[in-house]
């Protein structure tokens, strides 16, 4: 591609193109791959980590939610830091910090240390992800080149999960679950060194104030909410009773009440501050707000699906970690394959005729999983359900990415895209905590109600019953997304922005 100097509409020359821009894209793509890979790779490693560190069923979701909560809760602040401090500098700091957090998780000797490391990973990913996206925007100024760069970025975002499932299976089976975290260290450090040489610095000017109170309020509120769900799933007297604390336990009520107060305070603060972390006007439009709600509930249902299917494959079906990775592979490939078709169809018929059937397909696929047993055929039943969900989700991811930018100018496109990513991560955190709580309650209730079953059969049947409950409520979360799409959103094909970037 030509490195000639582009001109503005008046014929005056603008800033010369960066001659290292395609090398910079390669560096940014590796960083994005690492972020995406890390989410799926840990799911495969979780059963082994749980056994090694004696993590309870009620607490195991913190390995996932500690990362997604920190990532989603700090993502908007991370974007502001990247803009104001310098996108290249923030990118490099994020890489180095991510490497350190990964190393800490890889050597964790206790569950608490592993949770802390995952939270640190999420915090540094919240610096890294928006910096990477911003660097592409400022590095590629020609529309055709920018479309190519975003296409590469989107392909990495879609394919990274599939790579993570396979790599996680290989590392867990032939090395240790710890290497699923440790593998990030050399990748991040080499990428940081490369970024020093080939990535060009840029930063925003003008008002550079940070909304620290907003970031603190929303982060503490979300952590308290997830912790309240976790408390509801804990046993009242572990080892002596199968009764869980439940939703009416004082500790559960206390943390949920604190969460409500903090999140309301966050909204009030955002309405009053001159530099809000979350500009409320962006989310109040019916199509943009609907997109965020769709991604929130889709994230809540899908993140939990991956968690429980991992345990179903490895504990109930007896798959090895590597076999589990390959068992998930059709889901990722289905999303990637259908995405190309959806992208071509979107400008012709608009978002809603794609999003609504896509959500319906995903709901059917999730409900099919409520019928699985220890003897269910993978090829005859599990695979079709995964493919239905993957094809449906391709329709949702592409269209919601477009409708989240309806009526948004280029100045505010960054915050609108970040909100979509934040919705997915926060939804995933809360959904995982909620469904894990419902799962734990269903398992303990089943064991209490089926004392007459043989000691060998009862635990296995209880786990399957727990999966059924989790998948049913996962389908209900997707149903809420469908209702939002039908009754809230009304975007037409002419409303869709010309250049849309799917979130990572």
UniProtKB/TrEMBL annotation:
<feature type="transmembrane region" description="Helical">
    <location>
        <begin position="325"/>
        <end position="347"/>
    </location>
</feature>
<feature type="transmembrane region" description="Helical">
    <location>
        <begin position="176"/>
        <end position="198"/>
    </location>
</feature>
<feature type="transmembrane region" description="Helical">
    <location>
        <begin position="210"/>
        <end position="230"/>
    </location>
</feature>
<feature type="transmembrane region" description="Helical">
    <location>
        <begin position="290"/>
        <end position="313"/>
    </location>
</feature>
<feature type="transmembrane region" description="Helical">
    <location>
        <begin position="149"/>
        <end position="170"/>
    </location>
</feature>
<feature type="transmembrane region" description="Helical">
    <location>
        <begin position="386"/>
        <end position="408"/>
    </location>
</feature>
<feature type="transmembrane region" description="Helical">
    <location>
        <begin position="429"/>
        <end position="448"/>
    </location>
</feature>
<feature type="transmembrane region" description="Helical">
    <location>
        <begin position="62"/>
        <end position="79"/>
    </location>
</feature>
<keyword id="KW-1003">Cell membrane</keyword>
<feature type="transmembrane region" description="Helical">
    <location>
        <begin position="354"/>
        <end position="374"/>
    </location>
</feature>
<dbReference type="Pfam" id="PF07690">
    <property type="entry name" value="MFS_1"/>
</dbReference>
<feature type="transmembrane region" description="Helical">
    <location>
        <begin position="250"/>
        <end position="269"/>
    </location>
</feature>
<feature type="transmembrane region" description="Helical">
    <location>
        <begin position="22"/>
        <end position="42"/>
    </location>
</feature>
<keyword id="KW-0812">Transmembrane</keyword>
<dbReference type="InterPro" id="IPR011701">
    <property type="entry name" value="MFS"/>
</dbReference>
<feature type="transmembrane region" description="Helical">
    <location>
        <begin position="123"/>
        <end position="142"/>
    </location>
</feature>
<dbReference type="InterPro" id="IPR036259">
    <property type="entry name" value="MFS_trans_sf"/>
</dbReference>
<keyword id="KW-0813">Transport</keyword>
<dbReference type="GO" id="GO:0005886">
    <property type="term" value="C:plasma membrane"/>
</dbReference>
<feature type="transmembrane region" description="Helical">
    <location>
        <begin position="468"/>
        <end position="488"/>
    </location>
</feature>
<keyword id="KW-1133">Transmembrane helix</keyword>
<dbReference type="GO" id="GO:0022857">
    <property type="term" value="F:transmembrane transporter activity"/>
</dbReference>
<feature type="transmembrane region" description="Helical">
    <location>
        <begin position="91"/>
        <end position="117"/>
    </location>
</feature>
<feature type="domain" description="Major facilitator superfamily (MFS) profile">
    <location>
        <begin position="24"/>
        <end position="493"/>
    </location>
</feature>
<protein>
    <submittedName>
        <fullName>MFS transporter</fullName>
    </submittedName>
</protein>
<dbReference type="InterPro" id="IPR020846">
    <property type="entry name" value="MFS_dom"/>
</dbReference>
<keyword id="KW-0472">Membrane</keyword>
């Amino acid at each position: 591609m030509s490195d000639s100097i582009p001109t503005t509409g008046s014929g005056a020359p603008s800033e010369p193109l960066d001659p290292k821009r395609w090398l910079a894209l390669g560096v940014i793509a590796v960083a994005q791959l690492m972020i995406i890979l890390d989410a799926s790779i840990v799911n495969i490693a979780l059963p082994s980590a749980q056994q090694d560190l004696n993590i309870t069923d009620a607490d195991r979701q913190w390995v996932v939610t500690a990362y997604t909560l920190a990532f989603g809760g700090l993502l908007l602040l991370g974007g502001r830091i990247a803009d104001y401090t310098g996108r290249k500098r923030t990118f490099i700091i994020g890489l180095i910090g991510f490497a350190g957090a990964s190393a800490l998780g890889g050597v964790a000797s206790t569950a608490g240390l592993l949770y802390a490391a995952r939270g640190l990973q999420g915090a540094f990913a919240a610096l890294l992800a928006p910096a990477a996206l911003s660097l592409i925007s400022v590095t590629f100024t020609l529309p055709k080149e920018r479309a190519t760069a975003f296409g590469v970025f989107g392909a990495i975002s879609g394919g990274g999960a599939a790579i993570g499932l396979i790599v996680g299976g290989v590392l867990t089976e032939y090395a240790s679950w710890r290497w699923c975290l440790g593998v990030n260290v050399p990748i991040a450090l080499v990428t940081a060194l490369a970024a020093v040489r080939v990535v060009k610095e840029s930063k925003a000017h003008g008002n550079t104030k940070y909304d620290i109170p907003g970031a603190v309020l929303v982060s503490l509120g979300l952590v308290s909410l997830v912790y309240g769900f976790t408390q509801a799933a804990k046993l009242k007297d572990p080892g002596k009773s199968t009764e869980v604390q439940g939703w009416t336990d004082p500790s559960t009520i206390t943390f949920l009440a604190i969460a409500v107060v903090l999140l309301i305070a966050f909204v009030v603060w955002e309405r009053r501050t001159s530099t809000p972390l979350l500009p409320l006007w962006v989310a109040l439009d019916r199509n943009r707000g609907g997109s965020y709600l769709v991604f929130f509930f889709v994230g809540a249902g899908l993140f939990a699906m991956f968690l429980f299917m991992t345990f179903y494959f490895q504990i109930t079906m007896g798959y090895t970690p590597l076999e589990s990775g390959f068992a998930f592979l059709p889901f990722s490939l289905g999303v990637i394959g259908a995405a190309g078709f959806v992208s071509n169809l979107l400008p012709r018929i608009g978002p809603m005729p794609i999003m609504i059937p896509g959500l319906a397909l995903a709901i059917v696929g999730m409900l099919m999983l409520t019928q699985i047993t220890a003897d269910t055929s993978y090829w005859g039943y599990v695979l079709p359900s995964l493919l239905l969900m993957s094809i449906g989700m391709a329709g949702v991811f592409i269209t919601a990415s477009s409708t989240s930018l309806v009526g948004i100018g280029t100045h505010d496109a960054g915050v609108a895209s970040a909100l979509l990513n934040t919705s997915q991560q926060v939804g995933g955190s809360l959904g995982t905590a909620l469904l894990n709580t419902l799962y734990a309650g269903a398992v303990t209730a089943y064991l209490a109600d089926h004392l007459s079953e043989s000691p060998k059969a009862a635990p296995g049947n209880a786990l399957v019953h727990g999966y059924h409950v989790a998948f049913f409520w996962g389908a209900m979360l997707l149903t809420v997304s469908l209702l939002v799409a039908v009754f809230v959103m009304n975007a037409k094909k002419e409303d869709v922005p010309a250049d849309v970037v799917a979130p990572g």
